[in-house]
Amino acid sequence: MDLYLPVANLSVNALVIVLLGGGVGFLSGMFGVGGGFLTTPLLIFYGIPPTVAAASAATQVTGASVSGVLAHLDRDGVDLRMGAVLVAGGFVGSLIGAGLFELLTAWGQIDTVIAILYVALLGSVGTIMGREAWGAFRAAKVGLPAPARKRRHHPMVANLPLRWRFYRSGLYISPLAPLILGMIVGVLTMLLGVGGGFIMVPAMLYLLGMGTQVVVGTSLFQILFVTIATTMVHAMTTGAVDIVLAGLLLIGSTVGAQVGARFAQKARPEYLRLALAGIVLLVALQMAVGLFIRPDEIYTVQ
Asked: Helix 110-141 and helix 36-46: axis angle, to 10°?
């Protein structure tokens, strides 16, 4: 069933887009991470313009984050004070990202920058995840427990001034650290259409030293409000949000996430982490190859 996307200005098979959203939702539910970092590159592979893919993926992430935030709030798994600081930083970052988006679009380099950023981020994150997952896999194979993570914030965070107490996270650190982290994720959300969870969660664990019981819920809390802000900024400035595309993705991801969550309960976690690292690296490799392939059409006239 072909459906016209008014902002992307092309016709797509609606079933393919729903299945694509379902696949990303399945991975999200199975691996416990947001699927936004895979949605944009997969849309680009399908032929959606990178600017529309990034803006619409952010809209889809907003809808997919609502149920997760409500679930974590229900079990008191959100540090609201930490989340508020992260959201404030994310709002500032989204405005900075909007300026960069418009500037790069005016220069005609936004598509290339999106691809390069994805290759760098997915390549580095996939490598780190793969190394940790392989260590856990080898430990499980010989019957040894995985090494425990030490809860300690980074020395750079410890040296920042103006410390606050974040009681739910059990931290006494400067609010400047989560504020800067939120700004970075806000810029990436604006440019790439990602929720930022695949960067936010490791940073909250290893840089801020937050407890694992509140990391995912607080990350989703920040993602929800920052993607709302970036969607509004995109709609008012770039005009790249295709609501039809976002709606199709959301239909698929909602169903896929439920299926993935049930599947994850039957699989071993070390296998899941290894599989996710492999998927992330494959997507990064595909995008890296695409940077060096000569396109069929060198230019277009609009």
From this structure: 130
User: What is d(CA 201, CA 181) in angstroms, rounded to the nearest whole number?
Assistant: 11
Exposure letters 170-186 (e unless 16+ CB within 10 A, then b): ebebbbbbbbbbbbbbb
Q: What is the pTM of this model?
A: 0.68
Written as one string, the DSSP assignment of 165-197 is EETTTTEEE-THHHHHHHHHHHHHHHHH----H
E-strand stretches of 109-185: 164-166, 171-173
Q: How many CA atoms lie within 13 A of 22 on its CB side?
A: 10
Q: What is the DSSP letter of 146?
A: P
Phi/psi-derived region of residue 265, left when phi > 0, alpha when psi is between -120 and 50, beta in every other case: alpha
Q: At what angle do helices 269-291 and 110-141 cross, to 10 degrees?
A: 150
**What is the Cα gyration radius of the chain?**
19
Residue 199: CB partners within 8 Å, gap ≥ 6? 121, 125, 184, 185, 188
DSSP element (H, E) containing 4: strand 2-5
List, for residues 235-261, the tens digit of each pLDDT value.
Answer: 777 777 788 888 888 888 777 777 776
71-85 per-position pLDDT tens digit = 677 777 788 888 888
